[in-house]
Structure formats: C-alpha cells, structure tokens
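Dock nicotinamide-adenine-dinucleotide; give full complex structure.
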Amino acid sequence: MAKYKFFAEVNKNFDKAAAYTKHPKGLLEHIKSCNTVYRVAFPLRRDNGSVETIHGWRAEHSHHKLPTKGGIRYAMSVNEDEVMALAALMTYKCAVVDVPFGGAKGGIKIDKSKYSQAELERITRRFTFELVKKNFIGPGVDVPAPDYGTGEQEMSWIMDTYKAMTHDLNAEGCVTGKPVAQGGIRGRREATGLGVYYGTRECCSNAEDMKAVGLTTGIEGKRVIVQGLGNVGYHAAKFFMEGGAVITGIAEFEGGIFNPKGLDVEKVFQHRKETGSILHFPGAQNVTPSTELLTYECDILIPAALENQLNETNAHLIKAKIIAEAANGPTTSEAHNIIKSRGALIIPDSFINAGGVTVSYFEWLKNLSHVRFGRMEKRHEERSYLKLAQAIEEMSSKSFSVDRIRELSLGADERELVYSGLEDTMIVAYNEINEIRKRNDVDLRTAAFISSINKIAVLYEQMGIFP
Ligand code: NAD
C-alpha cells in the first residue's frame, strides 16, 4: 500500500466512516476498490522536431452507475496513485450530491507551461484517441471534464476527436466543461466556485454551528483567504466577494497578497494578467512564501489549488474557523485531526467542490436531450407571469411600472436554471450530511462518506449482489 499514499488517505476516511454503517465487509471492500486503471504512453513530436514520450492515466473507480465521470488533470504531480485517489473521491462526491455517475479521473504528467498550444492540442487529441481505442470514453461509458491545468479548450479538442472517430449521435455528451458553442452549458465555467459559495453559505446560515466555531451567521463581513486563483479559486473568491465577504488574502505560486481591508478579486486577476504575477498589487502587502498566508487570521480559508496543502507541518498554525476544501484532498488526515482538535469546521472536498460535477451532469443531460434548458418553456412562462400580473392589477386597481412588469414576468434562461439546480443541490446535500454528522457525533468529512457509502451500498443490496 506504500505506493498508494493519496489513495490510502481516501481509504482511511472511507474506513472511518464505514465503521458507522452496517454493510457486509465484502461489499465495503468492493465499494472501496478501484475497478480499472488504464496507463498509456505515447510519443509527441515537439515543434522543434524532437520526440518525447508522454505518460497518461485514466482510472474508473466505480461502475455502480454509468457513465463514470471525473476530470482530466495536466500537472507534473499526476501518477497512478493520484488518479485512483481522485477517481475514488469522484465516486463519493457524486453520491453525496445525488449525481448518477460512477467516479473516474484522468491525468497527463506534463508541465503545461512548457508546451506550445499546438503541442497541447496534439497531446490532448492523442490521449483521447487512446481512450477511444480502449473504450475509456463515451457518453454512456466514461465522461471526462476539466480539472487542474485543463479547461474549455482541452474539452473542445477531446469532443472533436471523439466525434471524428465515432460519429456517435450523442458525441457531445462524451465530455463536459465544453465551450457553449460546442454543446457546453452556461454556468459550467463558474460552477465549482459557485458551489463552494452556496455550500459554505448554507453552513454559515446555521446559528448553532456558527456559535460552536465562534462566528455569527451569514457570509457578510467574513474574512476569507483563498489559495489558487485558477478556475475554482477565482470564481469562489468572486462569489464570496459579491456575497459581502472580505477577501483579505490570495495565495498563488509566485507568492501571496494580503490586505485586511479587502482585495478586489477582478482587479487582482487583471493585475496578474498584465504583470504575470499577483505580487505588488496596489494597497496589498506581499507574502512570501505564499504558504505563509494559509496561517493568517481569517474566518474562512479556501484551499483551491492542489492536494496536501494543509499538512502536519502547518496544520497547528492554521487559525481559520472554517476550511472550505475547494481543491481535492487539500488536507492530510494528520492535518485534519490537528485542525479539528482546535474546534474548526472542515467542509470536505467530497461535498463542497461538487458544484463542477453537478453542472457537468446538467450539461450531459442537455447533450443527450439535444435541447438547451429553458428553450421550450421560457416564453410560455413569461406570458403566464404577465397574465398573473395583469390579473393582480385588475383586482387591486393599481398598475405596476413597466420595469416591475418586466421583472415579474421574466422566464428563466439556461444560466438561471443551472444556478437554481446547483443551489438546491448544495443546500440539500449540506443539510443531509450535517444531519448525519449530528446524529453520529462525527465530523462533516466522515458524515459525507457515511452518506455516500449508504447510497452506493443500497444499490448493490437491492441488486441482490451483496444480500
Ligand atoms: P486551475 O489550473 O484552473 O487553477 C489552479 C491554480 O492554483 C492555478 O492558478 C495555480 O497557479 C495555482 N496553484 C498551484 N499550486 C499552488 C500553490 N502551491 N500555491 C498557490 N497556488 C497554487 O485548476 P482548478 O480547475 O481551479 O482546480 C483546482 C483544484 O480544484 C484542484 O484540486 C481540482 O482537482 C479541484 N476541482 C476542480 C474542479 C473544476 O471544475 N475545475 C472541480 C472540482 C474540484
């Protein structure tokens, strides 16, 4: 097991939670195991004519529901252990938020910054080709999504390659996180960050739980530090800021910045775009190394970069009262225990970053139905609301202003429907795991695992496989 450290960490959490369930040992062992791992090596011709070998993996952790689902990561940290661990987290995450997928994850071991756009396109298309060859991709088989180091561009290459090779009518559903023009869905780009916001807001609305960590309810005025200004971190920070929180610190590769009065996330983003770094942002103090910032006084800490960021070397220095694990596996189990013993509340990754897969699910549904959400009903809804407003006017003999009528009669478009579905998912799932937490006197991570183990086990038990 020494070879599989991150996967072993995930399994440690599984075992802890499994002790609170009554399922047969054999069934629990089966749920925990990683079903299949595909390892591939292929040649890349670089722009300068040289040839390099690229290594990639795709792990499908559980096939209890199909398709399996999980992102594709481009990073030097990628290895078999990492994809297996992340695939397992996907299984549990999907179950926590009732998204009907098994868990999967893929990755390519590259430093993206060392390759040209044309080279990245060749790598992505060739990796997709290898996945198609082995039946590791398809709308009913396994559906990748963006993760660390990948985004809409890579998903678009994946879809195009799959479509060219298969002529599948449902080809658009072979991958999510695509650009809208290629079958993507409005709201997917910001979904994970927005889910982090909705989930944390729900947690902060519980007066009893907030009192226990020494905070008042609500997001307004809470001091937030974010690690990683990528897709997840940037959007999470933006939604927290819009919700009235004060973003006091942002940590990136090159260093961190801190301003107790608050940082304007959009301006920091633009500053990084223009100067290549978040450092020297007007009015903020530079913090190096950026890991220092994780130990600063704040109410909510959002690690949104990579795994193992909160570990036994810094856990005892962390002062945040709430840790919202936007990244996958940012807290080691030792760190978890140290932080917990201080009384802080850890909102686990398997719940709090599930916004991405939730909206990926909506995108996949859109692709299979071949119709945009809201297309059929929007105008009909608007006419009904208008009639209702007119009836109220007639009954009250008072008139609404033109602007008010427009506002009252507006039907929901795709983005609004996606936000609504995501908000409901995060609220329902939070209350479900929080209730399990209280009933069993455990932490939220264990509660989330108990919730998913029970949901998956019931499925097998009903199939009569493990009576
Ligand atoms: P990303 O590549 O868009 O952004 C990651 C950011 O973190 C980059 O800006 C990078 O420079 C920064 N970073 C890397 N190492 C750092 C360090 N040591 N200190 C500070 N900053 C550092 O990736 P992302 O999609 O935002 O993913 C981030 C995390 O969220 C990953 O753990 C990923 O698995 C998880 N996640 C992503 C999604 C999604 O929809 N993209 C969904 C669920 C979970």
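Observed: The mean pLDDT is 96.
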